[in-house]
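user: can you give me the structure for this one chain? tokens are fine.
assistant: on it. calling the predictor now.
[tool input]
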Amino acid sequence: MQRGSALLNQQLSAAVTGLRFGEIIVIADAGLPVPAGVATLDLALTNGIPSVDAVVRVLKEELVIEEVIIAAEMRKVNPTVSATVDEVFTGTRVRELPHDDIEELLPTARLIVQTGETTPYGNVLLVGGLDFFALGMADGD
């Protein structure tokens, strides 16, 4: 187990550790169609468990995130996940795209993490960033 990490799942930990700038990890609801050939981690246990909220909160602490992508439709029909995104990703760019455009991004995902979320448009795409300061590539002065 990685020291200092909250992640117990080996596949998820490996994806987080290996995520590069611009690569995508999708936190998906239970109904998101997964394209053939895309690595998938199915965490779903039962209806709502785990929730997108729970997974997003853990990954927020583990990743450097450049931006978050959500479906524009989420704002109207899924106030629960929408509120989670607003609360958890304060200060991070949140881009809204039509759901069809999000489905076009899925084949490029490094990993799709399926949750037990059963609310509509409950998908959150996390785009990897880079912390130049932590890597010693930039001076904080």
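assistant: here you go. DSSP finds five helices and six strands in the chain. The chain has one domain: 20-128.
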